[in-house]
Amino acid sequence: MNTPPTGLYAHLPWCVRKCPYCDFNSHPLRTALPETGYVNALLADLARDQERFGRRAFDTVYFGGGTPSLFSPSALGTVIAATGGAGEVTMEANPGAVEHGDFPAYRRAGVTRISIGAQSFEPSQLARLGRIHDPADTRRVVGDVAGAGFDSFNIDLIHGLPGQSEAAALADLECAIGLAPPHISWYQLTIEPKTEFARRPPKGLPSGDKAAAIEEAGVALLADHGYHRYEVSAYARDGHQCAHNVNYWRFGDYFGIGAGAHGKITSKEGVVRTTKPRQPRLYLAGNFGEAVDVPRGELPAEFLMNALRLTDGVEETLFTARTGASLRTIADVWEELAGWGLLRRDRLALTPKGYRQLDGVVARFL
Ligand SMILES: C[S@@+](CC[C@H](N)C(=O)[O-])C[C@H]1O[C@@H](n2cnc3c(N)ncnc32)[C@H](O)[C@@H]1O
Ligand code: SF4
Fold first, then answer.
1. 14, 24, 195, best to mutate for ligand 2 pocket (most atoms within 8 Å of CB)
2. Which residue of 162, 251, 285, 302 could cross-link 322, Cys pair, CB 3.0 to 4.6 Å?
3. pTM, full prediction
4. What are the chain's domains?
5. Please, how many CA atoms are within 13 Å of residue 311, restricted to the half-sphere of its CB?
6. Ligand 1 pocket: which of 17, 125, 156, 188 to mutate (most atoms within 8 A of CB)
7. What residues line ligand 1, using a CB cutoff of 6 Å?
8. Rounded distance, CA 166 to CA 168, Å?
9. pLDDT digits (tens), the chain, 366 positions
C-alpha cells in the first residue's frame, strides 16, 4: 500500500455549554480554560505520533471541537508551527464563543479556513438547540471572517429541526447563501444516543418522507446558487471543497491528536488506528492512548463506507492502493447492485438512485 496523503486532526474538547443534540466529545467549561497545559499536551502527543509513524508533514490541518474558537490565535499558532504548516488549516468557530474574535490574528497564526457553527437563523430554533448565539452574532462573525481576508470559509446549518417546515428550512439556507460563504455544510438533525435530545425527544421532528422532500428542495436551491453537493452534507462553490474532509472520504491517512481524537495510519505492515482518551483530565496528564491494527479483511468495507459518501465516488485504482485488496473481493456484490441501477460501472460511485439509498447499499458490503 502506498503512503496516502496525511491530514492532522486536533480536537479541542471544551464548550461554553453542551448543546442537547451533540454527541461530540465536548465538555462544558466549568473553570478557566487550561490553554497552556492543553497546547503542551497536544505538542507532546503530536511529537509521539510523528516519531512512531515516521511522518512529520501534513497536507491539511483541522482544529475541531468542542469549540476551538475558545483558544487564542497564539495557542493555535504554536500547534500549527509544530506541524510545519499545511495547504489548508481549518478552525471551527462557534459564533457565541469568539472571545478571541481577532480573525486577522488567526490568519497570521496560519489558519486558512474558518468553519462557523450557525445551525439556524431562526431565534426560536437556536434557543431550542441550546445555542449561545443569535443570528446577529453569526452575521457579525461571518463579516469579520470575510473582512479578515479568509477566502475559504464554511457555514454549518442543521435542518429537520423540531416543528421546522420545508419553507423554514429553505429560509435558513437562503440566509446562509445571502452571506456568500464559499462552502455550506447542511446536516440533517440526528438524535444521538445518550444526548439530552435522546433522553427527552423534541416534538415535531419530520417524517422520513418530509425530510427527503426538504433535502431534495435544498439540494436544488444550493445548486442554483453554485453550491454543488460533493458529499452527503457538504456543498461547495468550485475550488472550495474541504480538502481535509475529502481526504477522510478518499480513505487517506490522518493523525488524531487531542482528547478523544482518532487517527488512521498506513504502513507496509497494514493500517493502524489510534485512539486518545476522551477525558480531558487523563489527556492533560499525558495519557495519549493506544494504537491497534485494523484486520485487513475490514478495510474494503471501511473504504467503501467512506468513498461512496462522495457524490462522484472515487477512481477504481484507489481501492487497491488504499486497502491492498483486489477489486475482485467486491466484484460480485458490485455487479449485482450495478444491475439494479444503484452503482456505476465506470468508477467506484453510486448512481443518483443509489445515492438516495446510500446506507442500504453500503450495508451490502459489510
Ligand atoms: C463540532 S461542531 C462545530 C463547532 C462548534 N462546536 C459549534 O457547534 O458551533 C460540528 C457541527 O456538527 C453539526 N452537528 C452536531 N451534532 C449534530 C446532530 N446531532 N445532528 C446534526 N448535526 C449535528 C453541527 O452543525 C455542528 O456545527
Ligand atoms: S458547541 Fe458544538 S461541539 Fe459544543 S456542544 Fe454545541 S454542537 Fe457540540
1. 24
2. 251
3. 0.97
4. 6-246 (3.20.20.70), 296-366 (1.10.10)
5. 12
6. 156
7. 21-22, 24, 64-65, 67, 92, 94, 117, 119, 156, 158, 187, 189-190, 192
8. 5
9. 779 999 999 999 999 999 999 999 999 999 999 999 999 999 999 999 999 999 999 999 999 999 999 999 999 999 999 999 899 999 999 999 987 789 999 999 999 999 999 999 999 999 999 999 999 999 999 999 999 999 999 999 999 999 999 999 999 999 999 999 999 999 999 999 999 999 999 999 999 999 999 999 999 999 999 999 999 999 999 999 999 999 999 999 999 999 999 999 999 899 999 999 999 999 999 999 999 999 999 999 999 999 999 999 999 999 999 999 999 999 999 999 999 999 999 999 999 999 999 999 999 999
Closest to 152 measured CA to CA, from 111, 120, 187: 111
Q: Is-contact 306 318, C-beta < 8 A?
A: no
Ligand 2 atom at minimum distance from 131 CA: 6
Closest by CA to 313, choosing from 342, 335, 339, 272, is 342
Q: Which helix (H) or strand (E) holds 224?
A: helix 208-224
For 56, the grid coordinates are 512529520
Phi, psi (rounded to 5 degrees) for 18:
-85, 125
Residue nearest to atom 8 of ligand 2 (CA): 22
Residue 304 backbone phi and psi in degrees, to 5:
-65, -35
